[in-house]
Amino acid sequence: MPALVGWKKTKARARAAELLDLVGLDLKRYGPRYPDQLSGGQRQRVGVARALAADPPVLLMDEPFGAVDPVVREQLQDEFLRMQAAVRKTVLLVTHDIEEAVRLGDRIAVYGQGRIEQFDTPGAVLGAPATPYVAGFVGADRGLKRLSVTEIEADDLEQPPLARLDEPTGAAAERLGAEGARWAVVLDDSGTLHGWIGADDLAADGTVADHTHRMNAWVPVGAPLKQAFGVMLQHDAGWVAVLDGARFLGVLTPAKLHEALRRSVDADALGVARDQVRFDSVADA
């Protein structure tokens, strides 16, 4: 493609090296290879690099990740999102996979019965299907799919009891007892998360740091609710800590996760921001 638009060979070679790096292929290792010397996933990456070679303003991608296994497919989707964040191209991507569309698209056009049935954000398509056709296409489990496009916000979090890393266990036990709490999140003076501690741990002498447990169940703020739900299941946890970098913001519980999902759906239906939606919640009872 660069040759077709009149690029000089040196410029074309430099562009090829840049794009191979962008799609995660080492130039020295993969540059000399022919197509039959590449795996399916590697060929897909080269195809994306070729499409980007002449720096077009718009890309048309027709089922770009359809010919690879699910593991490679997810890896390529991750690479696509990373690449898109770097090059900021307008991409028209055709797919029959609604989960792929939801994951990759800023806007989704659902085509059926000879017309565009709905053109909207992924969250709106999943939360408020415009027609029975769209509802059937996205499936009865669209609420679960919507978890992947609903981000965790600070307003979704609960504030649990806290203990300071250098605090004597006796002082921390007294405060937790007064609050009727059985555990606390452990932070240092800068608000950095260090773990958690149970009320029974505080019966021992020393400082909170001596008895703190590692916190494995955590996600960054802005992560999708699906990621938080997955971490809860992976660690058999009743809640996950939510961080901004290393700084602790709060915890997301199953009740609050459900509330965040409901608020996101209602916000799209009403055309307002999530923090403007109010409803009675089990978490507040």
Question: Describe it for me?
Answer:
There is one protein chain. Strands 5-6-7 form a 3-stranded mixed sheet, with no helix packed on it. It is built from 11 helices and 10 strands. The longest helix has 18 residues, at 70-87. The protein folds into 2 domains: 9-149, P-loop containing nucleotide triphosphate hydrolases (Rossmann fold, 3-Layer(aba) Sandwich), CATH 3.40.50.300; 154-259, Roll (CBS-domain). Helix 4 links the parallel strand 1 (58-62) and strand 2 (90-94). By secondary structure, it is of the alpha/beta class. It is 39% helix and 17% strand.
Could you write a compact summary of the structure shown?
This protein is α/β, with parallel strands linked by helices and about 280 residues long. About 40% of the residues lie in helices and about 15% in strands.
Please supply descriptive tags for the structure shown above.
39% helix, 285 residues, CBS-domain, 2 domains, alpha/beta, 3-stranded mixed sheet, Rossmann fold
